[in-house]
Amino acid sequence: MIMKNELEKNKIDLVYLWVDGSDPKWLEKKLKFTGVFDDSTEVNNIGRYISNDELKYSLRSIEKNIPWINKIYIVTDDQRPHWLNINHPLIQIVDHKEIIPEEALPCFNSAVIEYFVYKIPGLQEHFLLANDDQFFNKKLTPEYFFNQDGLPIVRLKKKITGKWHYKIKGLFRKHLGQYISTVIEGAKIVEKLYGVYYSAIPHHNTDAYLKSDYKYAIENVFDKQVSKSLSSHIRQYGDLQRCAISYYTLAVGKAEVKYVGRKESSRINVQRKNYYAYLKKYNPDQFILNDGQHANEDDRKRIKPFLESIYPDKSSFEL
Fold it and tell me: What is the band of 117 on the pLDDT scale with cuts at 50, 70, 90?
């Protein structure tokens, strides 16, 4: 058992995926392999790739609210933010080629990139995986992410009708979205292998993992699904959402589940008109600004002023 003081001494890293979707060199590469810049679909819309400097403010939120992070790895495709101090001792840029198999490159599919974050050289056993548009809104301790035994705390959102929620939805829709389909597929695989079905879904959190369990899940539990989607340059039905790893660790007793709501983690859709009101209403521990196919350029213009007002102080991670 790892008691509180011992857990605080444990090194905990944080991993981001980051891309600058306006980079001409990157756009040319994407066009060559996918045939289209943006088709406004769920899987290949501009919101999946565009950078509104969210990472800058996410790093500010780290320095302000979780300064105990050991090292921050930023996984990119031969890119780096122009404002980032790459000589900062806590920052390490990781290129896709360092961790992703050659047959999967170039990769514009976040699910496939996430398969291989455990291969980051030097990554600690305890690590967090966050989107670059994830923000820490309150001061949080290591115990928020790992329990007293050092196991990850998995935060999920319950559905009132449980396992039947998306089956019922499926009766009224031609097909479910790609994201939720991949979540359900992961839950079904875990049920088939371990006899436990998790109907609760990810709550747009910063997720906690143990590297050894992450590696085992990718290389042994979900190896067939991983191999099948290596050629998916952009998101596809059949990809594995990373929550499947959490479902697996829960099923084998290597994680602790916690069912949460918007007061712990809130998703603010970029197309909403009043970010401040939403944040004030729930005052969550974490929040995410979710960009996607429903947002437009006018919506995105509100992002930087909002984040600048929440995190106005420049961090040591910036030039």
Answer: very high
Contact 135, 287 (CB under 8 A): yes
Q: CA triplet 48, 138, 299: central angle to 5 degrees?
A: 35
202 - beta bridge partners? 156
pLDDT tens figures, 249-293: 999 999 999 999 999 988 888 888 889 999 999 999 999 988 766
pLDDT of residue 115: 97
Alpha helices in 102-177 (DSSP H): 110-115, 165-172
How confident is the model at residue 264, as a pLDDT? 93
Cα 60 to chain centroid, rounded: 18
| Residue 306, number of CB atoms within 10 A of its CB | 17
Per DSSP, the three-state class of 267 is: strand
Specify whether domain 7-310 bears CATH 3.90.550.10: yes
pLDDT of residue 111 exceeding 50: yes
CB-based contact 42:290 (threshold 8 Å): no
Q: 250, 307, 254, 247: which is closest to 53 by C-alpha? A: 307
Q: Counting beta carbons within 10 angstroms of the beta carbon of residue 222, is it exposed (0 to 12), middle (13 to 18) or buried (19 or more)?
A: buried
Structure tokens at 250: 């829960």
Residue 28, both tokens:
């040319």
- Distance set, CA 30 to CA 24, 27, 36, 75 (Å): 10, 5, 8, 17
pTM higher than 0.70 for the full model?
A: yes
Q: Collapsing DSSP states into helix, strand and coil, what is residue 120?
A: coil
